[in-house]
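ESCALATION

Customer reports they have been waiting on this structure for their group meeting. Please prioritize. Original submission:
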Amino acid sequence: MTALRDLCVDPAVFRWIDRITTLSETMPDLTSADPECRRTAQRRLSDLVAVDFTQPVPDGVEIEDFSLTTGTASRVRRYRPRSAPDRAPSQLWLHGGGFTGGAVDELLADRLCAALALASGVQLFSLDYRLAPEQPYPAQVEDTIGALAALRDGAGRLGIDAERLGLGGNSAGAAIAVSTALRLQDTASSLLYHLDLEVPVAAMRPVGPSADEFATGFGLDGFNGLVALYLGPDGAADGYASAIDAPRFDGLPPTRIAVAEYDPLRDAGILLAERLGAADVPVALDIGDGQLHSSLGLTAQMAGAREWQARHAEALATAYRTHV
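Update from on-call: job pushed to the front of the queue and completed.
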């Protein structure tokens, strides 16, 4: 097992961890048995850290909140570049948060989504999907399927190019995104243009050497507990929750998978890329050298995080042909 302090990583990573550690000591609700109390504390911690470690929302992007009718009322935050055409290539985006937390207006997610939309030219719709443990899998996938349908139905009103509507997410959100895409493989009315998976939870179990080497001290120490809350007491019986264990992949759209070098989830993400490639799905794999699972958001203090985000934006611009 590797210790983070023994690795040659950007000093910003240690400043970020030290800030989290110091702030956490003042927030007892981070370990509350009440999920909502934990979320409130986690949100406060995340926002306090993001103020200094993540670049602010850039000029040139319009941000709007509204609701979609998805079976349940789902809140969405839209990030639309001011230069976008009337019918813009668009992506439904699913935030991270360990399946139990996160929100579309969390400062970290808000800043990164705005920057990504502006730099890529792709209109983003960030979905406030339901959270575990109150709502275990597959509630999140059902929310996503409903949101995709609502976006497609409202394409004209929302300025969406319905022929270029894709799906993406970060971490837990990426797991939900790929589960959704797997479930929609044979649904012609819900074809996805592109799938964008950033540090995905590609398996609901440890996979490969990275799962052992970076299991402790790299930001995902409670991974197994989060998975248990997400899957619920009955587990997931549909075969899509753990993406690498899906029976087939040939119906997936072109996919980008980005993994971090020092992430216990790294090898599962790489394996997913290999399985998609073997199924003749066009797949691009990006390995973030020197990155931890969550360090990609340190854009105010870490050159590697800014480079990661620039590659992400360029990949979307290429996939959605916004340069044309």
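Sent to customer with the following note: The mean pLDDT is 94.
Escalation resolved.
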